[in-house]
Amino acid sequence: MKQTIILFSIFFCSVCGLRAQTTIPLEYRELVNKLSQQVPLEKEKISLPETSPNKLLEFAKSMLGIRYRTASSSPSRGFDCSGFVNYVFSNFGFKVPRSSRDFAVSGSAKKLEDAKIGDVILFTGTNSRSRTPGHVGIIYSVEGDEIKFIHSSSGAKRGVTITSLNEGFYRKRFLKVVSIL
């Protein structure tokens, strides 16, 4: 009998407790309604200050000479190509991919002749016959037909460097330009 009374008391208290937790006093409901009307709707995007490509490139240029390191996105340890690009854009609040392959489907694609400084440039890996993205950089300058890009290279220059698209075999490995800004 005592067990039944105890069980009934526990059940009754838990039901009352649950009901008390789900009942919101009128004054709080009104306050929540008022506050929810002040919050912007999902459609209304909060605009962030526009990042200037020059600021982005100044920051990227401050890392010239940092060594190449596979699978790294840290200035103290070194960068691989996508780690460098990811680090630069992330510093300005952009959420960008970590792998060169993922850059191929991010941002908006552009023709090479429409490229601007601050755009991301994608290349194949060292095998130019495979049209799979394997290297990525940031367009540093566009002067006439010459495009230079800043990137972390595993090649002869090893590390963060500025290279012309016309140098070496980069023109042959070119895949596309993607605008992130």
Question: What's the topology here?
Answer:
Blueprint: H1 2-22, H2 26-38, H3 53-61, E1 73-74, E2 78-79, H4 81-91, H5 100-103, E3 108-110, E4 120-124, E5 133-143, E6 146-153, E7 159-164, H6 170-173, E8 174-179
Antiparallel strand pairs: 1-2, 3-8, 4-5, 4-8, 5-6, 6-7
Helix pairs in contact: 3-4
Describe the structure.
This protein is of the alpha+beta class and 181 residues long. Helices cover 34% and strands 24% of the residues. The chain has helices at residues 2-22, 26-38, 53-61, 81-91, 100-103, 170-173; strands at 73-74, 78-79, 108-110, 120-124, 133-143, 146-153, 159-164, 174-179. The strands form 2 sheets. A 6-stranded antiparallel β-sheet has the order 3-8-4-5-6-7. The longest helix is centred in the N-terminal third of the chain and has 21 residues, at 2-22. The model is unreliable at 42-48 (pLDDT under 50).
What keywords describe this structure?
single chain; 181 residues; alpha+beta; six-stranded antiparallel β-sheet; two-stranded antiparallel sheet; 6 helices; 24% strand; elongated
Mean pLDDT, all residues = 82
Strand residue percentage: 15-25%
Count of helical regions: 6
Radius of gyration: 27 Å
Helix content: 25-40%
Q: How is the biggest beta sheet arranged?
A: 6 strands, antiparallel
Characterize the overall form: elongated
Helix/strand structural class: alpha+beta
- The stretches of 5 or more residues where confidence is low (pLDDT under 50) are 42-48
Name the assembly state: single chain
Q: How many DSSP E strands?
A: 8
Spatial sequence of strands, sheet with the most strands: 3-8-4-5-6-7
Q: What is the distance, rounded to the nearest whole angstrom, between the alpha carbons of the first and last residues?
A: 73 Å
Order of helices and strands: HHHEEHHEEEEEHE
